[in-house]
Description:
With 71 residues, the chain is of the alpha+beta class. 35% of the residues lie in helices and 11% in strands.
Amino acid sequence: VRSPAEYADGHAAGAVSMPMDKLDRMWVRARLGEDAGNGEPLHLICASGLRAQQAADKLEGQGLANLAPVS
């Protein structure tokens, strides 16, 4: 959930950019598969951890439970 500039500056190997304004359960599953965020952990990364936690809260409210927000 890093900004496009943050993502361009660097990101974890295999990371997929997920803009906050498009982030929802359907988007995650379409991009990462049906197990993302439940069977498989979904690591949410941003510079400070704030957006990662906001994204986790949003996705948890939509039924995803295996979320790992980190900075």
